[in-house]
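Field notebook, page 662. I keep forgetting to write these up properly, so this time I am using the form the group agreed on. The chain and the ligand, calcium ion, are recorded exactly as supplied. Prediction of the bound pose follows.
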Amino acid sequence: MTDEHCPKMFPTTQLEEADGDGHNSSANATMGEIISRRFSRRNFLQGSLAVSAIAATVSPLALMTAEKARAAGGSAFSFTEVEAGVDANHHVAEGYDADVLLRWGDPLFADAPEFDPTNQTAEAQARQFGYNNDYVGFIPLDGAADHGLLVVNHEYTNPHLMFPGLVTLVDGKVEQGPLSKDQVDVEMAAHGGTIVEIRRVDGKWQVVRDGANNRRITVNTEMQITGPAAGHDRLKTAADATGTQVIGTLNNCAGGVTPWGTYIMAEENFHGYFMGELPADHPEAVNYERYGVPEGSYEWGRFYDRFDVSKEPNEPNRFGWVVEVDAMDPTSTPKKRTALGRTKHEGAESIVAKNGKVVFYLGDDERFDYVYKFVTDGTYNPDDRAANMDLLDAGTLYVAKFEEDGTMEWLPLVHGQGPLTEANGFASQADVLIETRRAGDVLGATKMDRPEDVEPNGVNGKVYVMLTNNTKRKADQVNAANPRAENAFGHIIEISEAEGDFAATSGTWEVLLKCGDPSVAEVGATFSTETTKNGWFGMPDNCAVDSAGRLWVSTDGNSNKATGRTDGLWAVDTEGDARATSKLFFRVPVGAEMCGPLFTPDDETAFVAVQHPADGGEDWDGHGRPSYYEDLSTRWPDFKDDMPVRPSVLAITKVGGGKIAV
Ligand code: FEO
Ligand code: CA
Ligand code: CA
């Protein structure tokens, strides 16, 4: 989503920053160099014109093969850049196909109904591909790179783009009416995840509708709460006296696939789904304040008491977790793994450390919140899948402290250690995990500029942290790891764990890239000089590392107004002289954000998720007014008058086959 207040209720658009300073009022120190020159729109426009003149061509190195270019100290990526810009369609680099694989509403089962936007029902939606695809993962079947399970998160819903007749114009301004219970039920069925078998036939990916593992997970799917917080009184509700059974998952943003082939769905902005009020002296009041609960963006609490905190005060404690799903068993009960903490989890990408323990990297996507990692107690057994299935129930959760001198520490969130004691309100490890953010506060973790994806790179041994933006950071709050005040465009940090050990508790770090237009001095962007006018970007969000160890970054928040371009997928060099060179490989239609991305193990396919297309377009002269169901800024990808815009997953392949960008 665009910012930490993800459920963007109409008429807000992705151009608008949510109000508020985040929910971290702890006094953790901020210090360091000050970059306080304010980015102004006037300067941006001047800069755009300037960069057009000075960098209109693609670097000659970009046209070499990757190997030759690398040998010449150039980019590891070989493709001709896409022209940055804004229009109604997607664009991929020349010589590549970007084929629509799954659209919102596509049937996922042999007996599922075809999509009918004028007759949407929860029953149909629960058998069809959900809304706002975000994380995309691939679990090979039989070890094949051309046959497997695609796992996709459906993060949230945009009612004004989904339902006819919901929006009216009043004095030229748009107003959204209340949702019916039927529409709320469709929303709940459009959330969650999809597991679907896919196969590549004659170079093209196909959905296998009768795949034995095909499954939809929704807000109504029964789940189990496991790990140290399971069964705690703070997780008990009227419907669940055990504190171990919860119905559904929501706001599943990014995620992961574990080394043992399970599907991870990270619960991000759960606060928006709760309405009602708690008394100020309620025992959960401080906890909920730290997470912004309740925000009341969704209307579900009008029909379902559990989403109203005045009626079911403990329900929000049952969201904000990392969910693990055995995608190979469609009858399996997904598990909320409390050992990994409760935050607004962006994702949970993992890697096996030298000692066999499995390390999960976790970003908490809110202004001034933290980067975490989790190290399992047990070790991964590549020969016995069953032995790995509960590895996520025991381990150590750490929060990152980035020092000014380029070193860092991973501080353990372990009850009884340091300040994590009853005196500070933590009576058990369950309390530490339920209030993970507050535990990070008292440990003195570093307040970051909205941590999104955190991705380990098994080839170069580094870890990449996407920090998407934080316009609320004041000049006196900058620190070395968050070096820009009013950070509108975000940055990327590269971590080197001590001795190359992902399980280490210390390491070093540096800023790989400060994002934004490099031709505008006030922005302070640090793309390499090889980066063209198309190659720079703002607001890094998701990322992927391909099997060659190359970094790909996707974005959320670029627009005509913000950067003169849509979001997209950029190839970012991390090695040698080409370090911090970026090139645009794919861009999304107007109003969309770029999610995924995911490379198949053979690097021949990149799956990308186009999320919330047509959510915006006022700032683009191809539309120039609010976008809603009856007056959409794009009807991508079908471009039919009777079909609304549809978030979709695309498969990008090289024409004629072969590895991407080689
Ligand atoms: Fe849902 Fe942090 O993006
Ligand atoms: Ca996002
Ligand atoms: Ca995201």
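OBSERVATIONS:
- The radius of gyration is 23 Å.
- Residues 8-103+252-268+320-654 form one domain.
FOLLOW-UP: compare against the apo run.
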